[in-house]
Amino acid sequence: MASLDDVVAALERLYPPALAESWDAVGLVCGDPDADVGRVLFAVDPVVTVVDEALAWGAGLVLTHHPLFLRPVHGVPATTPKGRLVHRLITGGCGLYVAHTNADRAAPGVNDALAAALGLERTQPLVPADAADPAVGLGRVGALATPEPLAEFVKRVVRGLPPTAAGVRAMGDPDTVVGTVAVCGGAGDSLLDTVKAAGVDAYVTADLRHHPSSEAGESGGPALVDVAHWASEWPWLADAAARLAAELSSRGSTVETRVSSTPTDPWTMHESS
Amino acid sequence: MASLDDVVAALERLYPPALAESWDAVGLVCGDPDADVGRVLFAVDPVVTVVDEALAWGAGLVLTHHPLFLRPVHGVPATTPKGRLVHRLITGGCGLYVAHTNADRAAPGVNDALAAALGLERTQPLVPADAADPAVGLGRVGALATPEPLAEFVKRVVRGLPPTAAGVRAMGDPDTVVGTVAVCGGAGDSLLDTVKAAGVDAYVTADLRHHPSSEAGESGGPALVDVAHWASEWPWLADAAARLAAELSSRGSTVETRVSSTPTDPWTMHESS
Amino acid sequence: MASLDDVVAALERLYPPALAESWDAVGLVCGDPDADVGRVLFAVDPVVTVVDEALAWGAGLVLTHHPLFLRPVHGVPATTPKGRLVHRLITGGCGLYVAHTNADRAAPGVNDALAAALGLERTQPLVPADAADPAVGLGRVGALATPEPLAEFVKRVVRGLPPTAAGVRAMGDPDTVVGTVAVCGGAGDSLLDTVKAAGVDAYVTADLRHHPSSEAGESGGPALVDVAHWASEWPWLADAAARLAAELSSRGSTVETRVSSTPTDPWTMHESS
Amino acid sequence: MASLDDVVAALERLYPPALAESWDAVGLVCGDPDADVGRVLFAVDPVVTVVDEALAWGAGLVLTHHPLFLRPVHGVPATTPKGRLVHRLITGGCGLYVAHTNADRAAPGVNDALAAALGLERTQPLVPADAADPAVGLGRVGALATPEPLAEFVKRVVRGLPPTAAGVRAMGDPDTVVGTVAVCGGAGDSLLDTVKAAGVDAYVTADLRHHPSSEAGESGGPALVDVAHWASEWPWLADAAARLAAELSSRGSTVETRVSSTPTDPWTMHESS
Amino acid sequence: MASLDDVVAALERLYPPALAESWDAVGLVCGDPDADVGRVLFAVDPVVTVVDEALAWGAGLVLTHHPLFLRPVHGVPATTPKGRLVHRLITGGCGLYVAHTNADRAAPGVNDALAAALGLERTQPLVPADAADPAVGLGRVGALATPEPLAEFVKRVVRGLPPTAAGVRAMGDPDTVVGTVAVCGGAGDSLLDTVKAAGVDAYVTADLRHHPSSEAGESGGPALVDVAHWASEWPWLADAAARLAAELSSRGSTVETRVSSTPTDPWTMHESS
Amino acid sequence: MASLDDVVAALERLYPPALAESWDAVGLVCGDPDADVGRVLFAVDPVVTVVDEALAWGAGLVLTHHPLFLRPVHGVPATTPKGRLVHRLITGGCGLYVAHTNADRAAPGVNDALAAALGLERTQPLVPADAADPAVGLGRVGALATPEPLAEFVKRVVRGLPPTAAGVRAMGDPDTVVGTVAVCGGAGDSLLDTVKAAGVDAYVTADLRHHPSSEAGESGGPALVDVAHWASEWPWLADAAARLAAELSSRGSTVETRVSSTPTDPWTMHESS
């Protein structure tokens, strides 16, 4: 058992809010700092199924990667889907905490977990963010222990991430050899130029769209591997849960943690063509 | 008893949100549309003492004139004073509804109540806002039944509004005769030029500062009467309470209403010099 | 044989540039108005493989849906991939013409071809754009002759569009009945609110990302069917080719047309997970 | 007797224009640098009564704290009140000089005079502005020789400043003990957060309005003491007059100085309620 | 003799301020509305030599085409050249009035006088500005009674305007026949596209620079004739003087008018190369 | 013979693109980096007559000072005059390279050539641009070996530059002695304040317009000498041609260079008045 205040303090040591982008909305969304927290649920998205699970389990806090209110609001009335979640959480005695781009940049963070899931070694940030700590920054670049053809590498990505309805798609010659890899959990199209400049063989990210992908191919960029946004960030949840428990334990508190069992990838059907 | 949804619908018929300024934040701040509302408390400000009163009385809704979150937020954690109010309201089963610049413009609305408190007759908007309804708009202009010296008029203002620690201050020749008057509940400095163009003898509003007041005097504007912001909007509360009760009653619902007994003028001390 | 000038004039009657978005870049990219054009190639993207095909076939004009220079340039040196395409086209005597958001809005246009490929009937624009011609506008809304479960509808989409490596993915209950459908060729996430307000059962578009899709689902929007961007616009090419040939023929000119045989979807590999 | 040029040079040594805010309008408004100046009048506001006094007394320069043209102009025709003042000053051979936010920040300056009038000791800037001179900056923070209840402190403020019609108003518990105090001459609401962070017991300033004052109280800020804008800046006039005379005297010139006997607080009436 | 107020009213009937561009600064710059005005001097520029002439002649008002303070100011100290002019005018009892882009657009106005000086007939505005009065607008388009070669037309321009040191320069084939002509007094480069669309044979204006002139020539625009800015606006002065005298006379007042004898073209030397 | 790539590399060593203004458009406009270049033509403007000369001479590259597409474009169709030039250059196997504000700032560059043409000595930049290289920057300031009257100096300017139809015009007292001079090739009005602060006797530049020139004169600035824009930049062409040849020669390549024999000053006629 720990106070919500203590849990928040532990999370901010692990994922300093100062690492977040200026446009981001991280930190506590609801919850009373004096409340006792015995159970913490970890999930990618603050959606209905996740709140259902949290309240059923008796969680005192939900940590999600994605913000509930990235666009700020003038109120939280239960007439809107998001406001209704806030009402359910507050009356259920459960707080909501967001660690988003700060967790993306932190080391270890979202991108370290993704790189590890793919078996990358000797990783470092794609975009370093902290002169004092070279491990901190956006994305990761690393190498496979043994280079392999792109066709094999795509199968490795499939094995490393949780299954999703739509699977994994890729751009490039199946026989091209992949030795070095860049990863960026979530939507990574804004880093395509940086990735090309880094000279890696492949880039694993999510939410890639036609135009930037096509332009990257025309201009001689690396192979692209596009996975489900949810799947790319999911490996981090277990890591964060373990680190929070350890961080609190080192200060004499014990909380129970759980990674949500609910996939929140919106795509639930797929048909080959 | 009425559902919160029905109460909100009645309030939006009385004070249409479309009348609000584009920068304003009106409507439901928290509350469940399906909740039953038996008691509605009316107050100028959404502050701690008002929430105390609402919860102690068992209110199902507080209506305030001022927004809680004029500047939008990414969350409502109880680590902030405003977030704590939201937690108390939600766990106490009490909603919060804001009618701000829409109530200022509505007819009858905030400025009609202020004009009536001063005994003004034949009132019309200072800044008409609706070609289809000439009674709607910002501020009001009207006339006294019998013109009187400014010194007398200031006493009339004191008698017409609730007492406040700092009283009422005025600019102008005490002997100048006041026959026509403009009023604007709340901070009315942005209307000084409009008031001058309207050619009235005096302007009653709140939160006037040195520079616009001094410039208005130098350029031959009307006498100015500056009252407490809270006091200028308070007369509307009883009017709104009666209209809401009648509106709901006409549709077969009954709610109990009360005007908050807590003055929320921040100025609680005054010393003459 | 027709002059390039005559071909351009015919295209602008079919797809008036005034229908394009203000940020778009439609019209002639290169080519001499006095050149004779005997063959016109139609493709979705102005990429290397398409230019290869055009020059090999002896085309005098390539019409693409996507702009080559959406972001304007200060020059077209062959030191860049796009500048090299311009050099090859000019020295090869082949022009390049873009019909983008004007073809999206035109009737018949990109979205009519997509709606027809899915068997939609009684279509009208999702966002009408021309008071004088109710058929013109962005997206289309229509109905299936016989409503069918979402699982069947997804198969219909697969059958109606050209095959792609990554196939088709969808969000929603497979058993929900789909009777009315909205479509938007290309990236359609900016229309999600409009689609929800239209009250259709399903929305077919491309390039949908995690956040808008997840929010649409949480707020009770329609089923979503996400296809390859290229595939959603491909049905229009044959239609445009036929209409251009007819338009020129009606004025006494004959040109040979061909739809490019090169798929330009960047995604060439897929692996289920 | 000194040339206007010499007087201006002396004033700019005392109140360097570089200390002014970027939006401010300080310096010479009218006057001929070659004119002889024998008498300098000091006032808060450049208004009719002050110009009357200057011309009647034969002043060669008026120094005011407030700018005449904060909003810049395309001309100074006597068809406007301010243009008429310029015509009267120029034909009367009298210049006008403004020292505004530069005098607020200077040390000694407006805020030092205000702090001294209240008996504050060990003062330093609330917002330091010059790394090289720690005495320079906006506002002042200091301490009373002996802490006293807020009710007593308000009386101290009344005694320390010139009398005004509306007196002094305050927010806070009358019994709270005031030991440390922040001051800001003129309208000081933009510094409320800074003052709260400074942890003082009370803040003395002017032109405070309902919303920032109410929010400051709700969030646990210090006691607030709101005085007339004019009164808060008046103590500086005598100080500036003495310093200018000394500065010129040290260079061998003598000018006669006078603090205007005309209060320019617009509020001339007050009624308790 | 007339009051300055009456003279201003007459000028605003002739050159309505509402016709001025939004960025312009027209109207009274200094002067007392109650002053008696016996003499009015007309000039293109508010410069030292013009003020010398006005004061020597005993003018009560100077009307100039160009603003003194196009960029607005926070004061008019005599430490700046423009402020010194204001001091001299005010102490000399002489007002300054500006009629700039309103006189350019008015009919009759600056451009009618320029067109007449060149012998143009059947003139109408190049850019109409007033649906109710088709004679009002920017620039003029007209025709010569008899078309003539450009070489002759340039000589006609020289004869029609006052002499200047640098003379007149032109772009085009000397033998091209000029029948229709556009004119714009002052700097007319922003109208080059409009002039080209109007299909005239020649365009007479001032302050043309290399790039727009070169581009106009490359794109097949009309012949260009570039004159001194001052010379292009000078013909209007006599016209305005006569119209003001008549306007006042029709209301029973008499003022003496004079066109300044001082050329204010800055270019006083020229050397052929 | 050299590859276009090698010629471009040599030009970028002489005129580093990093020296250009942020709004400028320098570098290669068209051309294939692998093409062989035997002849390079140097001209001020990329206009029809220059392209005629380049193709007739068999140039592999044209270097111009002025950009072809300062405003960026979405295409280069031959339906526009500039697009037609691009088509002619590409089909003629001739590249186009622009060195604009980088050549203005470079040392030696455009302004060094202009200063040398006027016989200035001990030159340095008017606006230094590179702390590491004090010779680099905008404009140049220098001195005549022997001061001379302005009337003589104007004749010197005429002699030093290529003849133009409209000659040279000047502002100032013909007898004023000119010892120090600032120069800025092309349109130099934005540097008038800098020139005044530099305290030189005369300023030679181009494209000066009425208002800045008149204001400069009224405020006591230097004498102004206004030449044809083209003429002010022409002296640089021979210098650049020699330096490019030497730069390539030092790496073992030989190209033939030529300064265009076509004046591109748009003003071809002049008439004294």
Keywords:
homohexamer; 273 residues; alpha/beta; Udp-n-acetylmuramoylalanyl-d-glutamate--2,6- Diaminopimelate Ligase, Chain: A, domain 1; 2 domains; six-stranded mixed beta sheet; five-stranded mixed beta sheet; 10 helices; 14 strands; 27% strand; metal ion binding (chains A, B, C, D, E, F); GTP cyclohydrolase 1 type 2 homolog (chains A, B, C, D, E, F); DUF34/NIF3_sf (chains A, B, C, D, E, F); DUF34/NIF3 (chains A, B, C, D, E, F); metal-binding (chains A, B, C, D, E, F)
The CATH class of the largest domain in chain A: Alpha Beta
**Number of DSSP helices of chain A?**
10
Global Rg of chain A? 19 Å
CATH topology of the largest domain in chain A: Udp-n-acetylmuramoylalanyl-d-glutamate--2,6- Diaminopimelate Ligase, Chain: A, domain 1
Mean pLDDT of chain A: 97
State the largest interface: A-C, 55 and 55 residues
Q: How would you describe the oligomerization state of the chains in this entry?
A: homohexamer
- In the CATH hierarchy, the architecture of the largest domain in chain A is 3-Layer(aba) Sandwich
Biggest beta-sheet profile of chain A:
6 strands, mixed
Provide the domain count of chain A.
2
Order of helices and strands of chain A: EHEEEHEHEHHEEHEEHEHEHHEE
What is the first-to-last residue Cα distance of chain A?
A: 52 Å
Low-confidence stretches of chain A: none
CATH superfamily of the largest domain in chain A: NIF3 (NGG1p interacting factor 3)-like
As laid out across the biggest beta sheet of chain A, the strand order is: 7-8-10-11-12-9
Q: State the total count of DSSP E strands of chain A.
A: 14
Give the amount of beta strand of chain A, in percent.
Answer: 25-35%
Structural class from helices and strands of chain A?
Answer: alpha/beta
The helix content of chain A, as a percent range, equals 25-40%
